[in-house]
Structures are given as C-alpha cells and as structure tokens.
Amino acid sequence: MSAHSRTAFRAGPLVLAAAVLTLAVLAGPATALAATFNPANVISDANMRDRSSMSAADVQAFLAAVNPAGSTSSALKNLRTPDNGGVRKSAATIIWEACQYYGISPRVMLVMLQKEQSLLTQTAPSARTLERAIGAGCPDANTNRYPGFGPQIWNGARLLDGYGEGRVTYIPIWTPGMSVDVYGGLHVVPANLATFKLYTYNPSIGAKAPYGDLSGQQCSGNANFWKIYWKYFGDPQALPRYRPVYRFCSKSTHVYFFTTSDAERVSVIRSGGWIYQGVGLSVDTSSAANNSWLYRLYNKSKGAYFYTASIGEMNSVIRNSGRAYRLDRTLCKVSVTATGAPVYRLYRKGTPVQLITSSRVERDLLLRAGFRYDRIICWLGRQ
Fold first, then answer.
1. Potential cystine with 10: which of 129, 179, 357, 359 (Cβ 3.0-4.6 Å)?
2. Domain limits for position 332
3. What's the CA gap between 123 and 120, in Å, rounded?
4. CA gap 245, 205 in Å, rounded
5. Using one digit for the tens of pLDDT, what is the confidence trace for 118-147?
6. Cα separation, 342 vs 289, whole angstroms
7. Final residue before a domain boundary, out of 187, 210, 233
C-alpha cells in the first residue's frame, strides 16, 4: 500500500542497503539478463515512463490472457466502472488513459495492480479490493483518499508521475545520493528517479539479503514489484527502444514459436505445451531501416511455423503449399538491408522445425547439432 506519509528522506552519502547488480545467463537463447534484484535500482527511468509500451487494445488482450487457469473470465477483463471523472469505461481503457495523461507505462500500472491487490489473477475480488486497487492514498487499513477503481488508477498514475519532481509538493525533489528510510530500519539510496518514486509510494524492500534472483523468496514491497515485472514483461532494466521477440519450443514436436505480444506470451505459457526460452530476438524500434514486416506463417496440418520478411517468399510459400500455410501474424518491423544484426534461418531436415536466431554462436551450435543453414532473412536494425 502507499505509505508516502511515513516515508523519510535524507540527502547526502548515507548507507546503501542494496546488493550489487550482477548478470546471469538464463536457459534458452544466448541472452544476458539482469536476474539479480538490486533494491537501489528496481526499474529504469525509461521503462517507468514508457507510455507507448502498450495500446489500450494490448492492455485488454493482456487482461484476457492473464486469467487464472480454469477461469472463464477475470475481474479486470470484463470490468466496466466509472473512471476518475465518473464516465463508465472498461478497466483497460481507464488504465491506458491515465498512463497516457501522466506519462507512466501501462506495464507499470498492471504490475502495481498485481503487487497491491493481486487483481490480475483474481476472478471475484470484493468491492473493497477494487476500491483500493493499487493502494493509492491508502497508508493504512482504514484510510483511502481515492476510493474506486477509476480514482485509484488516475491518482496512482498522478502520484508516480509527480513524486520526486516537485508536482507532489509534500515530497522532496529527488537528487542523486538522497536516502530513503524503509521498513525494518533500513535505508536505500535510489540510483534513479524511477526507483525513488517506487519507494516513495511504498517504503519497503520486501526481500531478505542476499537477494539473488528471489525465486526462493516470498516477497512483498518493491521486491515483489520487480518479480512481477520480470514474470510478465521481462527485464525492467531493458531499453524500451528494443522490442523483445519472445521464443518458445514445443514440448512434443520441438517446433519453435515466436511472438512480440505480451498477451500471447502469457497465454502460451499458461497452455502448458511449450517451453518458454526467453527473448529470442531484440529489434531496435528507433531504427529507420526497420521498415519491413517480419511475417509468421502457420501450417495447421503440420503444426509448423515459417518466418520471413519477404512478401514474395511469403506468397510463394503459401502458393506452393497449396495454401496449407497461411499468414498468422505480423511480428515486428525489421530491415531487409544489411543494418544491424543479421537474423539466420535454420531448419531440421525432414521435419517442420524451423528456427530463427541472431546469435552466430547459437547458429554454429545448431549446425553441429544437425540443423541445416538456410539464409539470412532480415536484419534487426540496431544503431
């Protein structure tokens, strides 16, 4: 819950109750991921402020995909309720509009909903739970300055926007080296403004040192924020200009599946039939060279996927397969000229298994493991 009224701030070089951030390589693609919780740097400023990370439709799709297993609907998927101005809207629209107005990432707001009241995975929350949706203005069990889902989202975004920047006047302007007193008699010196905002909102680390990847800990506070963000959206330190393309491998057929959709990623994980292998590709969305679509084709009879950035090749595959292949989805914009990292396409002879990777190391390992090299299908346009 928000407890900013009890947060204490101190300027100057005080004690840093934090672990040193390290890197760990997870199973799957050769991608280094920051898998160690650092209380002093919970999320980057860019990810806190990435208001374009999701559209209103993306938020709605995510709320539908994140339903608890076995449920027919989640509370937020179907929720229509008054916004802060009293206009009845969907929960997804309320979240998105508040985030656009105050410049907060919708991903951050979704994480806050789960951290505070587990509203992403509740199917029948009480009226009181919805009225305290993200703990905005709720420093204790008996106080709620902004009752109602709409006012909670609006004022939660307003507070996260204003903390440390002078727009919430009773909170000091953040400067590097400022210390925040947190529960347990500890002190944190936030490394960036976004982390200062989170501790102002909730002055709790919520995990025990040594922190590690926290997978073995039941967490609360900002450690729980970090864990939830990782679970649903990946590395909270990743540059938002790089769009992740998530990779899966079928447990039964070993076919590879790629998606850029957070909602689709969550849905596939919940299906139980796929091994999630993390981020397979990372596309620079700021690159002007990325002006061609990466297409995902699907063959229902084979349960196979085909990936190409060539309209000509896509049409040829569809035509030559007797239309067994069809366009399934456009994934992201890539470059068809040699700009940035190349994307290699490989296949396993005699099977419908096709894999794309931007890692030369992985390409060479797969060639030694029996895959055949096909071609470079596009470039990722990194600058």
1. 179
2. 242-379
3. 8
4. 31
5. 999 888 899 999 999 999 999 888 899 999
6. 13
7. 233
How many whole angstroms separate alpha carbon 282 and alpha carbon 287?
12
- List, as one string, the DSSP characters of 351-371: SS-EEEES-HHHHHHHHHTT-
The Cα–Cα gap between 365 and 362 comes to 5
* Matching residue, tokens 């010196």: 189
Residues 6 or more apart in contact with residue 267 via CB below 8 angstroms: 65
**Positive or negative: CA dihedral 313, 314, 319, 321:** positive
Note the helical H segments in the chain.
45-48, 56-65, 75-78, 91-102, 106-117, 127-131, 149-162, 193-201, 221-233, 262-271, 311-320, 360-368
200 phi-psi bin (left φ>0, alpha ψ -120 to 50, beta other) = alpha
Number of domains making up the chain: 2
Q: Write the pLDDT tens digit of every residue in 252-273.
A: 999 999 998 888 888 888 888 9
Query: Edge-to-edge strand order for the sheet containing 179-182?
Result: 8-10, 179-182, 186-188
Instruction: Judge if 91 and 190 occupy the same domain.
Output: yes
Tell me: do 125 and 222 sit in the same domain.
yes
The amino acid at 121: T
Q: First CA to last CA across the chain, in angstroms?
A: 41
Q: What's the average model confidence in pLDDT over 13-20?
A: 26
How far is it, in rounded angstroms, from Cα 332 to Cα 214? 32
Determine what percent of the chain is predicted with pLDDT higher than 90.
62
C-alpha span between 128 and 364 (Å, rounded): 56
Final residue of a domain: which of 233, 266, 281?
233
For 312-328, how does the pLDDT look when each residue is reduced to its tens digit (9 = 90+)? 999 999 999 999 999 99
d(CA 272, CA 69): 10
